[in-house]
Amino acid sequence: MSSTETPVLDKKSELIARVKTAIPAAIVVIAIMGYAPLFVLGFVVMIFAMVGTYEFDKMFLEQKIRLSLLAMMGSSFVIGGATVAGGAFGLTAAFLLSILGLFFYYLLLLSPQNTEKLNLLGISLLGVIWISWGFNHLTLIKDLPHGTSLLFLLVLSIWVSDIAAYFGGKAFGQKLLAPTISPKKTIEGSICGLLGSGIVAAVFSMIFLDTMGWILGGFVGIISAAVGQLGDLIESKIKRLCEVKDSGSIFPGHGGVLDRVDGFLTAAPVFYYFMLWFSRS
User: Fold this and answer.
1) How many domains does the chain have?
2) In this structure, is residue 133 part of a structural domain?
3) Are 172 and 188 in contact (CB under 8 A)?
4) What whole-number distance in Å separates Cα of residue 39 and Cα of residue 152?
5) What is the domain range of residue 152?
6) For the chain (length 281 residues), average pLDDT per consecutive 10?
7) Of 120, 143, 166, which marks where a domain is finished?
């Protein structure tokens, strides 16, 4: 076998592994979103947020940066549980308490003598805001009027954006989107992702969300995809700073939890507050 054939086979095997993981995972996600009660979805979101927090901590350990995993996991657990029990109020209250808890731990309990602990505090706050606070908005979306359909709209927007951006970049990619952060992403691929999400979201809204309409649905799809791509770049930057390829290895061919949900961490809050505003206008 020639050396030129080996990379092709590696790419094919990687694609097969990704498909084998993606199909059953998609079935489970669809079943939970469509048929599971709210508390089950909230529990799953909380577990994923805690696993993502664990991955976040391990990535920084690669650079000998030791965060308080216990404090961050505790915050993730409290925020997830409070969101299930108390909805938006529970999320806000637990989030604020978690921030105060991290301040207390890093600044008072550890009694720092230099600014090193301030750096650890900042990174920990990033993890709590980005992962625990952001991801738990999926539970709040489910609890909105037409929440199941709205959740499917968001998930479809992010999934289609990822798929369309990948294949669009392969077919048309010329100009790099963020070469110092993610050298394989292209502007053309990003545009394909936005257009694909807008079209699918418009069709979905026309069929399942008649109160929204296809124009607004398409707009929401594009915005969700754009913010989701931003979330992807945020995770890529963190991985590059920590010098790791993937956040974890829990999903064969896909990496870790953060590698799979990075778009939702930023898109879910934006989607939720936009829909909340729309429902009240």
Assistant:
1) 2
2) yes
3) yes
4) 17
5) 146-281
6) 50 64 83 93 97 97 94 96 97 97 88 79 96 97 95 96 95 93 94 98 95 94 98 96 91 84 97 93 72
7) 143
